[in-house]
Amino acid sequence: MSEFTDVAQRYLAAWNETDPAARQERVAALWAADGSYVDPLAEVRGREQIAGLIAAVQDQFPGFTFRLAGDVDGHHHLARFSWELGPAEGPAPVAGSDVVTLDDDGRVTSVLGFLDRVPAAA
């Protein structure tokens, strides 16, 4: 398994972690202390805000999980991958792609997220 695939899997595992203490541990293990995340709907910095954003997404989509949608691509300190968010079985109503920047220690310093498919507002 490549370093980039490992990072993507650990990243999605953090987004799927529902226990707040365990989620915080996953975020702390993967992210640089001042790491950032930005997508069309959110912009946060630091481990506490990142863990809070993950909790908010889980509240918005209860019971859904993130999964890789295809291969992980990477070079230098950059990785990109596509993901889906949905129920364990069946189609995923949400999909996107992320570009992750890593520091020399392999910690995430930034994520640029793109939403490719989102459900229509009710």
Q: Kindly provide the radius of gyration, computed on alpha-carbon positions and rounded to a whole number of angstroms.
A: 14 Å
Percentage beta strand: 35-45%
**Portion in helices:** 25-40%
The SS-based structural class is alpha+beta
End-to-end C-alpha gap: 41 Å
Which stretches of 5+ consecutive residues score pLDDT under 50? none
Helix and strand string, N-terminal first?
HHEEHEEEEE
- Determine the number of helices (DSSP H or I, runs of at least 4 residues): 3
Shape: globular
Please give the number of β-strands.
7
Could you describe the largest sheet, including whether it forms a barrel?
7 strands, mixed
Mean pLDDT: 95
Describe this structure in words.
It is a single chain. With 122 residues, this protein is α+β, with helices and mostly antiparallel strands. Helix content is 32%, strand content 39%. Strands 1, 2, 3, 4, 5, 6 and 7 form a seven-stranded mixed sheet that branches. The model has no long low-confidence stretch (mean pLDDT 95).
Map the helices and strands.
Elements: H1 3-16, H2 20-30, E1 31-39, E2 42-45, H3 47-60, E3 65-68, E4 73-75, E5 78-86, E6 94-102, E7 108-117
Parallel strand pairs: 1-7
Antiparallel strand pairs: 1-2, 3-5, 4-5, 5-6, 6-7
Helix pairs in contact: 1-2, 2-3
Short description:
By secondary structure, this protein is α+β, with helices and mostly antiparallel strands. It is built from 3 helices and 7 strands, in the order ααββαβββββ.
